[in-house]
Task: structure prediction
Amino acid sequence: MSYLLIFEIISILFSLVLIVSIVRMLIKMDFISGQRDYGWHAMRSDSIYKSRVEKAWTHILKHIASNDPSLWKKAVNDADVLFDEIVRSLGHRGATPEERLSKVDSSSIENIDVIKTLHEAITPLLADDTATLNREKAKEILRAYRIALRQLGLLAEKPKK
Result:
């Protein structure tokens, strides 16, 4: 065998060892999950995600416009679930919606303290099947969520007349 062939084999083996080492380091550093979080941020600003949120919000508004009190409660629940999904997509992790909300600060959403308070108040109400919610209270809750969604750029501002 020539020295050139031996040198090429050693070079290939050394390259393979380096590639395997780099992949193992990336896995150990959990580099891929960081990229996944970045993907959520990119998705959040995407027009497809924005239109999905706007459609969900339109559906929520149809519920609140109804004369059925059970739909008012459903509208509040849907808004709460939608907002929790958005908080998760922003990268705030936690086992429960309360944990995720506690990680959000007012620099990203100005009225997050209002939403935290409202969430604490409505959680037992939403869990109780016999409890009712009046339309004015439901509208108040939805206003807080709408303000937050507009701050995040996921809902369009009111059209000017």
